[in-house]
Amino acid sequence: MSAAAEPAGPSEPPARPRRRSSVLIRAPRPAVTVGLIAVLSLALAVVLWPPPGTDWFWGWAAAVLGPSLLAGVATGPVARALGGRFEFHRGLFLALSALLLELPLAAAWRAALFAWPSIVPPLVFLGPFLLAPVFWFRHLTLYGVSRPSHARTLPAALLQPVLQLVGFYALTRPTLASVVSVPVDFLCAFVCGLVVLHAADRPIRREFHSSGVSMIRPLLDHVGARDPDATGRLEAFFLRSTVEADLRVDLVRFERDGRPPATLVLPTVHPGPFAALGASDLPRKLEEVLGPGAGTVLVPHTPCDHDLDLPSAAEVDRLGRAARELAESLGPPRPGPLGPLVSPGPESTARAQLLGEVALVVVSQAPRPTDDIAFAVADRLVRELRQDGGPTPLLVDAHNSYVEGEGDVSYGSPAAERLVADAKAAIAAARAAARDGTLEVGVARRDGYSIGDDGIGPLGLRALVVRTAGRTTGYVLIDGNNLVLGARATIVRALEEVVDVAEVMTTDNHVVHEVDGGINPVGERYPIASLARDARELLERAKADLAPARLRFGSRPVPAVRVLGPGYTARLLTSLGDTLAMFTNMFPAALVLLLASSLVVALVLR
């Protein structure tokens, strides 16, 4: 099946534009942040002490800019001294965020004072009114990011508002009433912070009996530095709700002159949940375990979903040991008929290639969305095929046509029934097209891609070319999570300029999520035209590497492995959605409550 005759349609629609759905906010460079602080400080000083006098200059230097920069620099050391962690660039960014909160409030006060001078409290009360929200915002941030302890967070949270208040009162002589309003306003800010934290923490605590806020710092440390302690805390969170599952790993080793140029590893494991936690980054982890003696390691995505995510490094180690032991104990090559990758029809969702005792079956619903295939669907298919006799089926989910929220194949669905029928027909077609003959294999790899810039994981691109009976089949495996809609046809067309038939697949490696906070499919960051060019050049190198080879195959069960299990991901995503909704609602509500309380205090004490 060529790119021009894909299943379920004559052509693919154009690729969608990149979604910018990042939930991980990255602070700008410190130099940029300092410049923005200087500009916002000047604007705030002009609002508080408008020209033509010189108070705006002294207010800018002593009451806003100086305290903000000092707080930005000192927040990290104060947090570390109290057992927390807050990086230098985040400290500056937090100071900048506080100014962004102050400026519109000060502008609104100035406008109200102009409109109702007899009603609005005078300038001396504006300091507590502006800086109580700053304390509230800093405490919320530091509690989540630095350390979830009120007592150990308060000193760092108070730095900027207290320093600014001292500078403010140096220019605006305080009254007794305005001084009394300070602790009252700050107490209201603390209580409003408690309300927001409790509301945001409740969904995950209710569902998983653990604080979600306490996981923010470990998550940042894991993503930013792969900190072992942080990783351990996150794994402990996942392990609380896991179940046992009996897994399996299949392994195909191609050998030339007794040495493997390539090893194909097919574990019944989903490469998630996120970043490098558990089974995430599984292709790289398995390559490291198998070592250089395995040649180029390819770990395509097998039919399974997040139910079979491994939650910890210990479970991944079990899988890796099983794969290594299997690779060391493979039986001798078994001769058998060989054939190219074939399709039973132009609309089939499966193609198959017979390689002696095994049949490699590649599934894709492109040009329609194609995503995870439930393990139960694949398990049913394998059991039925084994009952019928014939080659051992090795199923691959090509995972190469992404549309958000679409393309999953669940057990018992019409898509599952079609997949089973198509896979059986594909294997029958592959057997009919196979002949006795020699096997030639060529491989190539291209590393050096960036998750952040290219959306491609650490294993980059891997190419495998198989020649049987004079026909060449090419596979390109991209270490990423799915392809943007429309990319598959473009890449396959480029590949089939080099070989007779080709397929492009992704590993579904969830390590790419840590940059974008979302799916980050291949093609959002790296242009499809460039990707097609890279894949074609790589396949040319693999074709030039063709040489006679033999195939050895083995399969090994991995019993009682801890996995996230059915429904875990849905529960987690629901809880996170509830947390986000609760926070989205409570954050502005608490801020409005705080401002109203501070205004009432000022009106009463003026």
**Tally of alpha and pi helices:** 17
**Could you tell me the strand content as a percent range?**
15-25%
Mean pLDDT: 91
How are strands sequenced across the largest beta sheet?
Answer: 3-2-1-11-7-8-9-10
Structural class: alpha/beta
| N-to-C SSE string, H for helix and E for strand | HHHHHHHHEEHEHEEHEHEHEEHEHHEH
| Uncertain parts | 1-24
The major beta sheet can be summarized as:
8 strands, mixed
Return Rg in Å.
30 Å
Structural shape: elongated
Helix content: 40-55%
* N-end to C-end Cα span: 81 Å
Number of strands: 11
Provide the domain count. 2
What does this structure look like?
With 606 residues, the chain is an alpha/beta fold. The chain has two domains: 30-224 and 574-605, no CATH class; 243-563, no CATH class. It has 17 helices and eleven strands. The chain has helices at 30-48, 55-81, 88-115, 126-145, 150-171, 176-208, 216-225, 228-239, 282-290, 313-328, 375-388, 414-433, 451-454, 487-495, 513-516, 528-544, 568-605, and strands at residues 243-256, 259-267, 296-298, 350-355, 358-363, 392-397, 439-446, 461-468, 471-478, 501-506, 547-563. The strands form two sheets. It has an eight-stranded mixed sheet with strand order 3-2-1-11-7-8-9-10. A three-stranded mixed sheet has the order 4-5-6. The longest helix has 38 residues, at 568-605. It is elongated and about 100 Å long. The N and C termini lie far apart (81 Å).
Summarize the structure.
With 606 residues, this protein is of the alpha/beta class. It has 17 helices and 11 strands. The radius of gyration is 30 Å and the shape is elongated.
